[in-house]
Structure formats: C-alpha cells, structure tokens
C-alpha cells in the first residue's frame, strides 16, 4: 500500500508527484477533500484533483478507482459541497478507468461539527429529518473490502445500522458529552445550506451496513476524551 498526500510530496491539485506515486499501482482509493467548503473553491478543488488523478491513472494503467462520496449527494441540490461531489462523480463515471463510487452516510465522528455549524448562542437549530450515520472505522473497513473487489462501474452505498432523527441524535450526543447547548428541532433549518426531508440522507435498501451502533461508538468516544 502506498500513501499519498501533500505532506508526502504528492499533490493532486498541482500534479506534483502523482506519476511517481501511481507507478505500478493497480487500485487507487480517492479520499481527497477540499481545504475550503466555499462553493466555487470546493468545486474547483474536486474537478482539478479528479482530472489530475484520472489522467495519471490512465498513464499508470490503474485498474480500479475507488472514490468516497456521500449518500444523498444527488438529493440536496442547495448544498455547494454536494454539487461539487456530484461533479467529481461525473468525471469518474465518464472516464475510461474502471471505478466504484462509494457513497457513505455521515460519520459519528462529525456529530460535533454538525452541532457547531448550526449553533447560535446556546441553541442549535437542526432538522428532525432522518439520517443513518456510521463509524469512521466501518467506513475504512468497507473501503478496504471494496478496493479488493472487482469494480462495479457504479455506486455502492454504506451506512450505519440504525436510522435517527438528526436533531434528536445531536441532542443525545451533546447531553452525553456534557454540552449544555439545547437542540431545537426546526423543519426549516438548513444542513450545510440544504433543506432536508426524511429521504434526503438515508440509503437505499441494498446499502452495506456497518456493525458499530451509536451507543457503542459513544462509549468508546467518551473513554478517549
């Protein structure tokens, strides 16, 4: 396995080090992410990074491009980050490289970030819409298995084993971490710029499900903090 990142001299935006890093590589797992979530910046990042990766992969003879994307990315058009991920998916699906697009639900590890993004004073306004988060460790395991399998040239969804109300789960998380902020369920609250309903962020019936339940993850998280 070869790790590649700017800190290791490989930059998917400038192209620096890509050809050398991909020499002899059969599978690429793309988990690149933009340093900025501003609409224009994030779109430019994913389009530039993905084009450079695909061009380098074609020269190297890569047999499988696995990319991490988001469940519901095509159902929240008001979110600029989601629009950028759709652009990334389109570049990959339109390329000559065999591929698997792995759409994951939100990670448990990002619950604090969700709360912070919706906080005003001591109040957190969040939609009660359903979502089905999973542990980052389960994402890693799924990506490893998928990268060793044959490309599906399509989409695979992965999700947690349980669905929750977003507002209720964030309130549970805050209470468990002794955070005094109060969550106010609000149907009009935007999730990173997008309006949600109960079908926006939940996977289809054929999704691969992780094994880690929220209560189990929360106990592990509290022991580590």
Describe this structure in words.
The radius of gyration is 18 Å and the shape is globular. 37% of the residues lie in helices and 17% in strands. Strand 1, helix 2 and strand 2 form a beta-alpha-beta unit. The chain has 7 helices and 10 strands. With 225 residues, it is of the alpha/beta class. The strands form 3 sheets. Strands 1-2-3-7-10 form a 5-stranded parallel beta sheet, sandwiched between helices. It has a 3-stranded mixed beta sheet with strand order 4-5-9. The longest helix is centred in the N-terminal third of the chain and has 22 residues. It has a single domain, classed as 3-Layer(aba) Sandwich (Rossmann fold), CATH 3.40.50.720. The two termini are 31 Å apart.
Keywords:
single chain, three-stranded mixed sheet, Rossmann fold, 225 residues, alpha/beta, five-stranded parallel sheet
């Amino acid at each position: 396995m070869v790790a590649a990142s700017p800190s290791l001299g490989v930059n998917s935006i400038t192209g620096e080090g890509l050809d050398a890093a991909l020499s002899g590589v059969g599978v690429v797992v793309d988990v690149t992410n933009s340093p900025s979530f501003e609409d224009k910046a994030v779109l430019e990042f994913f389009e530039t990074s993905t084009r450079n990766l695909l061009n380098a992969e074609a020269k190297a003879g890569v047999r499988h491009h696995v990319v991490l994307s988001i469940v519901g990315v095509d159902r929240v058009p008001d979110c600029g980050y989601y629009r950028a991920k759709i652009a990334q998916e389109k570049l990959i699906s339109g390329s000559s490289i065999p591929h698997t697009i792995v759409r994951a639900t939100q990670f448990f590890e990002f619950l604090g970030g969700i709360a912070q993004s919706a906080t005003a004073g001591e109040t957190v306004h969040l939609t009660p819409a359903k979502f089905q988060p999973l542990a980052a460790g389960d994402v890693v395991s799924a990506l490893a298995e998928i990268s060793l399998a044959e490309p599906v040239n399509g989409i695979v969804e992965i999700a947690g084993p349980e669905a929750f109300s977003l507002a209720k789960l964030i309130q549970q998380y805050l209470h468990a971490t002794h955070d005094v902020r109060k969550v106010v369920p609000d149907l009009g609250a935007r999730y990173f710029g997008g309006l949600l309903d109960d079908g926006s962020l939940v996977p289809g019936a054929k999704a691969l499900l992780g094994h880690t339940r929220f209560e189990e993850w929360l106990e592990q998280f509290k022991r580590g903090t």
